[in-house]
Amino acid sequence: EELERNNFHAELIKKNPDERERIAYSHIIQRFTTALTIPDQKVELNSASKLFREAKNDTVAQLIDEETRLIIKQDELEKKLYNVQLKGLSLVDTLEAILINYEKDADTLRKDFNLNDKRYWWIKIQAYAKKNAWAQLLEFGKKPASPIGYEPFIDVCIRSQRLDEARRFLDRSIYSSKLDEERLPFMFAKVQMADEAINSAIKLKSMEALHFIEAKCQLSEANSTRIRQAREKIQEYDDNPLKNVFKIFNRGNRADE
Q1: How far is 206 from 185, CA to CA, in rounded Å?
Q2: Distance of alpha carbon 32 from alpha carbon 235, whole angstroms
Q3: pLDDT tens for residues 58-107?
Q4: Separation of alpha carbons 94 and 86, rounded Å
Q5: What is the pTM of this model?
Q6: What is the pLDDT of residues 212-226, one digit of tens each?
Q7: Are 71 and 38 in contact (CB under 8 A)?
Q8: Contacts of 61 (CB under 8 A, 6+ apart)
Q9: CA dihedral over 92, 97, 98, 103, signed as positive or negative
Q10: DSSP 101-115
Q11: Cα(81)–Cα(104) distance, rounded to whole angstroms?
Q12: Please, are residues 185 and 198 in contact by the beta-carbon 8 Å criterion?
């Protein structure tokens, strides 16, 4: 049956070379419908990749090659780890499935597929949050030089409705040298730390941050007044022709701290 199908496809291509891509897609469909074993799936995908390359569609061919590599790696991992089901998962979902209990295997898979640091850190923090692995997330955050900063750590905690965990990443005793000062008021506001958010926004003279705090936080009357007064002072500062001199002076002061 396989030989007959291949001969039929060869005849179609001989009559009309433009049929290559349509036949290639049929191999992909076969992979998801009748090709039940990994070797069979590999055959279908390799056939599809070959046809796409012949049709000068190298981009799709490369994607198919990546998928072929992935199903082989998934099969190897299932045999090695026993209690995980990875078939049919994307690369990201595969990494998330094994990150918590098999982090070394996840790291190896990441290297095999050349995932850059930023993307892998994103996958990791989302995996920890989805699995409620808060202790691991906190420890991961203590690693030096996060390529994505620390606000995403806060965001994944908030999405899981864990403000308590999100606030841990604003602990200045742990993260003081890592936190982005320009983003501090926004991060404080996200976790409902209104006083700290307002103080940071005033220090930065950031009108944008003050607006964000108003939108995000449940403010007391006193804090609403502080924001209004801060906006007035910032407006006066912006209207001052010497503001650029002030900026240079303030930058110098921060450098000396």
Answers
A1: 9
A2: 62
A3: 888 899 899 999 999 999 999 999 888 998 899 999 999 999 899 999 99
A4: 6
A5: 0.74
A6: 999 999 999 999 999
A7: yes
A8: 49, 50, 52, 53
A9: positive
A10: T-HHHHHHHHHHTT-
A11: 12
A12: yes
